[in-house]
């Protein structure tokens, strides 16, 4: 069920294949282990990821993870 939700969530055409792939990896990790730590997110994204209590942040965008459904959504793009 979570894989379907992840694919539906990741169908946004503005997202690059790289972003979709990384968020799909997050959803798969959550499906397998039930949660994902900031350290695991750093490993998946290959960069520092931090959480402000609501969103997770990378250098390029902010995203949210629904812990109950495994759904991932981008909440803010950061254009450099």
General description of the model:
The chain has 80 residues and is an alpha+beta fold. It has one domain. The chain has three helices and four strands. The chain has a four-stranded antiparallel sheet, covered by helices on one side. Strand 2 (56-57) and strand 3 (61-65) form a beta hairpin. The radius of gyration is 12 Å and the shape is globular. Residues 4-8 have low confidence and may be disordered.
Count the beta strands. Answer: 4
Rg, please? 12 Å
- N-to-C series of helices and strands: HHHEEEE
Number of domains: 1
Structural class call reads alpha+beta
Widest β-sheet, arrangement of strands: 1-2-3-4
**N- to C-terminal separation?**
36 Å
Instruction: Work out the strand percent.
Output: 15-25%
Number of helices: 3
Helical residue percent? 40-55%
Low-confidence stretches: 4-8
What global shape is seen? globular
* Rounded mean pLDDT score: 80
The major pleated sheet works out as: 4 strands, antiparallel
Summarize this entry quickly.
The protein has three helices and four strands, in the order H-H-H-E-E-E-E.
What structural keywords apply?
80 residues; alpha+beta
Fold blueprint:
Blueprint: H1 2-9, H2 17-33, H3 38-45, E1 50-51, E2 56-57, E3 61-65, E4 72-77
Antiparallel strand pairs: 1-2, 2-3, 3-4
């Amino acid at each position: 069920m979570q894989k379907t939700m992840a694919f539906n969530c990741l169908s946004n055409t503005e997202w690059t294949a790289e972003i979709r792939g990384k968020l799909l990896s997050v959803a798969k990790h959550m499906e397998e282990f039930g949660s994902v730590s900031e350290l695991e997110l750093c490993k998946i994204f290959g960069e520092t990821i931090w959480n402000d209590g609501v969103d997770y942040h990378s250098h390029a965008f902010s995203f949210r993870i629904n812990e109950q459904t495994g759904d991932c959504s981008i909440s803010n793009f950061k254009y450099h």
